[in-house]
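Purpose: get a first structural picture of the assembly so the mutagenesis plan has something to point at.
Setup: two entries, given in the order below. No constraints added.
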Amino acid sequence: MEKISSTKNSKVKEWVKLKTNNGRKKFKKFLLEGRHPVETALEQATEYEFLIVQEDFDLGELAEQVDNDKLILVTKEVANHISDTVHDQGIFLIGYINEEDWQFPDDLSGKWLVLDNVQDPGNIGTMVRTADAAGFTGVVFGDGTADFYNPKILRAMQGSQYHLQLKRLNLEKWIRNCKDQGSVIFGSILDENARDYRKIDVPDQFSLIMGNEGNGMSERLIEMTDMNLYIPIKGSAESLNVAVAAGVLMFGLAG
Amino acid sequence: MEKISSTKNSKVKEWVKLKTNNGRKKFKKFLLEGRHPVETALEQATEYEFLIVQEDFDLGELAEQVDNDKLILVTKEVANHISDTVHDQGIFLIGYINEEDWQFPDDLSGKWLVLDNVQDPGNIGTMVRTADAAGFTGVVFGDGTADFYNPKILRAMQGSQYHLQLKRLNLEKWIRNCKDQGSVIFGSILDENARDYRKIDVPDQFSLIMGNEGNGMSERLIEMTDMNLYIPIKGSAESLNVAVAAGVLMFGLAG
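Result (structure tokens, whole complex):
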């Protein structure tokens, strides 16, 4: 079992880079942190490179599951350095990014949540968790949307990433492929002239597109949908939080 | 117009205390920050003690609305000191807390969202905004729930505090008073034996109680409701984010 006490160690330098989009692209790995997320990843038999724990960390039952060759002990200083949080829990996992994330699924049937340029990691993680709860097949991350290996998104998904498919794809191509396979594309917009989501016939197979927190869906995609939906606002609020709106629409459409 | 350049000024010391629950209780005032929240407060003709701006702040059209006796200029150092955010916008307002917040409304009719021991300021602000959008009459903050003059909650409400009634009340008394006036009390719990929210007759007047993020509603309140509702979870997620669950229920019940 390796021990690392310097933040200048080459492995540590690589781990820190995994906190960025570019670093993850370069090394095709991601950094997961926190006891519950790491335990869940190990339960799911995720392929991983290293399990990293702070010297005084009590592995408990995890000790039996872990391959000693993959276990690395680090000092508190190194743990703080690689952590993305203010108070880290002293446990990290280096996982491999799946090449299939960038490949179109063979089967586009089912219900898909599609994120067009959504920015906030908390909102994104919450939407993935809600899509899981609403029985959706998967979530498609469009070009402008934050990467789902972003450490904040990984935490906010709370394990839902293992229950549905996550894809990182070009959304124009997604829409064209869905239409080819007879799956309906719903946009969501803040416009009373759009269709009230409670007053439509919901097909078995569809994609629901949610747009950017401030600017909504991109114009190009709005034009490509089969139908654009809106949630009637009764009070004086100008809009809904995007994760709440996604929840209302997903449970409303999934019946 | 007064100018303050020291963080040791007695006014500055009071303002900093308004970031805490105890400070707000003592002085019966609250601190609001950011251009949009302050503009909205002024548009709503909120009673205020001071408008505080950093020296180089461009008031623009606000200049005409502001009473010069209430305007205080501060240095960048003082602005940083009183701010609750990492990057403050250089504008703050000191408002008066309304004594009516602690009084039962004469009329309990309509739809009320009731928060039992909800903790996260972002969740709370989002729920108030969603209650506004769903046409609710007001939101009741129970004893254990964060104070709605908490700066983070003020920001997250995005002005919805001016569109509906916010109350800080004892929830057991709230439930008894509602029952006396013929208003129905719905709890929300994670239990498949509770009633599916889509399969009930929804009355015109009701309260919907949302519980703590981790532990749900308190047992005492669960026993006092007329009916407890749940959202059927189809996938493998263990639960929904409380603000998403509140959104699904409020729009589901409000029709």
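Chain A has two domains: 2-97, 101-254.
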